[in-house]
Amino acid sequence: MSLRLEPSTVLARAENADFSQEELSTAGGLVVSFVDGVSNLGLVATRTKLSVERVLAEAERLVERSLLVVVSRPGASGAHYDLSELEEDVDLDRVRRRLVLETYHSLDRMSYYELLEVHPDADRTTIKKAYFRLSKIFHPDTLYGKNLGSYRPKMEAVFQRMTRAYDVLGKAKSRAEYDAKLGEEYLSRLRTRMVSMLATEPPPSGREPVTVPSATPAPRAEATPAPRAQSPSGTPRGEASPTSVPPRSGAPSSARPTPLDDAERRRRLAAARLAGVFGGARSTGSRPAATPAPAPSERRTPIDPSQRRAVAEELAQSVRRSTAVTGSNPRLAAMLSAAHAAESAGRYEEALSHLAAAQAEAPERTDIGERIERVRRAMAAAHVQEHRRRAETLRAAGRLREAAFAYRDVALGAPDDAAAHIAAAECLRSMEEPDLRLARDYARRAIELQPTRVETHLLLAQIYLDAGMTHNAIRAFESAESVDPASPAVAAFRDKLGA
């Protein structure tokens, strides 16, 4: 009987697997790169932007080839909350739901350091960066216009606690008092554990690596099963006193997770959220975040001969810069060399496969993520006309969600194409379940590209109206009015606002 996996299955890379000697498809390489022994296959699908069905099929083949191993079967949940909470009908993807629930139901067991995911010896700058990074995930205002249901008060409770943690840890006197309440024994255990947790975190593309003040290097993290936890007692969790601290004596029982286990689970979920659902690399200015290119076709598009020399030299410099690091790892060096050869020849799909395997081999190498992003952009640029035709066909057929993603591919390959950004914004706003945040970003970028196009200013104003942000809508309308006060479209929108 053939192996059957499910979205809740957790896999890890086999101990003796040599991926440099294996023929992997592009999708297979992506699956391998995100399998970590903790994330289930549903989460892997979210992070890779592949369909769940495609991830399951690739994972089953990799397990049958003894490259991946099963860590936990469906039904073996490590959650310490009622799993039915994940099924609430709200406008949150499953990754963020898990992250909110994991954090909310751990509030009374975590120290401020664990809540902000910082080392006990972290400086004020590191603490500030951590606070603002996490606020983008937990502040409800980041999801304006969305139905959050019971998740809204949970997110507010988490954000309030994080703000309290930031206030306490950001001041020398209050931090010293808090450390004294924690006790040196607990802080010592926390230092030891968090050095390993933070130093080995594979930073998502575009995310700064975490620096840990430690005199000794942390060991490489091995893929391990997700920690198993008992169900909570059901006691409502509110804002705990700042003096509430974890136990300071005795080893934690193996039957329930320690606060440090909770922090590690949350850290991995946060990394998944930032890497997958927020669209990968951090955007610059108001430019929409880059998204992975669609499933590649078999057709290979060579680089323009006039650009080949410059591209080859850039790639050669990249390889030379990484030689010092890869010299002690022949497998990694081989993967990067193969990726370099494929990219320089315009075989982008093959290059992505090699780079995905390299990222799995050396997750701490942020430059590999940068190369993956560069290849994705190059591949999108090579197929931009194909993406444009597909987007126009889908939009004409009324398939707005698919059209929106196709226009995003066009914008990725042609970042200065204002029409593509406008079309993406219009589709994102008009589809059955609108993504108003992303629609706003594309409209803003289109305005940057064509600041005198009054219709785009009005599109942005309409997006704000849809989101219930009237003041922002008025400001966007005033920008349109300053461009062309006599425009009939401006007059019609003025009537809509009641101005």
Short description:
The chain has helices at residues 26-34, 41-48, 52-64, 94-104, 112-116, 124-138, 151-169, 172-182, 184-199, 259-277, 305-326, 330-344, 348-361, 366-382, 384-396, 400-413, 418-430, 436-449, 454-466, 470-483, 488-497, and strands spanning 10-13, 68-72.
Quick tags:
mainly alpha; Helix Hairpins; 4 domains; two-stranded antiparallel sheet; 21 helices; 57% helix; globular
Task: Describe this protein's structure.
- The longest helix has 22 residues, at 305-326.
- Residues 73-78, 196-260, 273-301 and 323-327 have low confidence and may be disordered.
- It is globular, with a radius of gyration of 24 Å.
- The protein has four domains: 10-72; 83-277, Orthogonal Bundle (Helix Hairpins); 305-382, no CATH class; 384-497, Serine Threonine Protein Phosphatase 5, Tetratricopeptide repeat (Alpha Horseshoe).
- The termini are far apart.
- The protein is mainly alpha-helical and 499 residues long.
- Strands 1-2 form a two-stranded antiparallel ribbon.
- Helix content is 57%, strand content 2%.
